Amino acid sequence: MTYLNFPKQFMWGGATAANQLEGAYREDGKGLSIADALPQGKARFDLVNEPDFDWTIDESNYRYPNHRGIDHYHHFKEDIKLFSEMGFKCYRFSIAWSRIFPEGDEKTPNMAGLAFYDAVIAECLKYGIEPIITISHYEMPLHLVTKYGGWKNKQLIGFYKRFAETVLTRYFKQVKYWMTFNEINSALAFPVMSQGLVKSNGAADKRNIFQAWHNQFVAGAEAVKIGHQLDQNLQIGCMLLYATTYSYDANPVNQLATLQQNQAFNFFCGDVQVRGEYPAYTDALLDQYGIKLTDLDFSAAELALLKQHPVDYIGFSYYMSAVVETIQKDHAEVGGNLLSGIKNPFLEASEWGWQIDPIGLRIALNQLYDRYRKPLFIVENGLGAVDQPDSNGEIHDDYRIDYLKQHIEQIGAAIHDGVDVMGYTPWGCIDLVSASTGQMSKRYGFIYVDLDDAGQGTLKRSKKKSFDWYRQVIASNGADLDS
């Protein structure tokens, strides 16, 4: 059966990140971020994990698409107006840390950077769009990596606290919903974007990743504390990358491995930030990597802070599910959201190998709500695809409509199951630079941006077929999904 009785207050919208669409990477005093130093291409992550990678921007050999993005910095009014035409109730975006504190360790903020976000927030509110802000979304100041070594250094707690306090204090009257760190758990497999760690500064040592997580947990709790001191009604959430995970078969060995994979990837970071304490399986998890909790630098005061200031809700991204198999070694593999894995024979995959599993989203919502009993917000979901304009310049992206329709149906089913779902903001509501490949050709948006992988194009915005379809979905509060 199809259940499409969404709550009246359900927040429909879209999501982006500053480093993937703003551009203007050195304009108005902005400093370099780690995203600015990531070259384009499917091998970008292999490159940054070379032992001698030192974050040098080498424009003679590589393209850096984040430098221009889609020039949202100069087009934000046009873009937000298009969002309002779709009927957005909310818009999730991030504040570029290096636009506010260019090096990350300054005592005073860059006022030009704050003025930009003053204008963005005002433009959202002008159209009745609720801003939802991610404080740190894969764009920490590069200086905090090259000088301090990234998040494994406890000094970053203070730098982040200053940044969070600056933006929370400035915007708390206009912005009710916040998230501390984007996809914080992704660091288990790939810590460069969320922790600033690569092989050359310690990524190969899992102790550094767990230390960086602890420092981020403390920093996030500081943000929650600051926000609630400003207004106890502020909603400050964490944000996870969630991949519903299945055992390949009923073999108890694979079932146990699936349990352990869920603990390590899907639940550990959420357990600490939502429950306010390290879970019972922490020692067993660390032991898998030859680490003990006592190897980490933490204090009783920090543990008390975590307990006293847990998050208010859980935001998460969902693009695909995963399969665990530890016995056979000859399975076909597929790509994924920063992760690859075993092919599920029951699922189809996108052009980039991401396995499409709408029912997995219903399972994810039930698993998270059963575990935490806090409101859930699906802040990323979508289909990356090559969109080709026809002879009339129109894009008939029925494949995207079908993907989103199936996932929205499963959200409705989860709400019927009793899950408290706050809202849904599909990823890349306007075409932007892909985080995983640095490509423009991997498009997610309802709005097409005329720009190719070589950086050529007019930047003209145009509506895809999915634009009008999503407008209809929002206008009907999810009741009309027909295309």
TrEMBL record:
Active site: E380 (nucleophile)
One Pfam family per UniProt: Glyco_hydro_1
One of the record's GO molecular function terms: hydrolase activity, acting on glycosyl bonds
GO process annotations (BP): carbohydrate metabolic process
Record key words, sorted: Glycosidase, Hydrolase
Entry superkingdom: Bacteria
NCBIfam families: PRK09593.1 (NF007158)
Similarity annotation: Belongs to the glycosyl hydrolase 1 family.
Identification of the protein by name: 6-phospho-beta-glucosidase
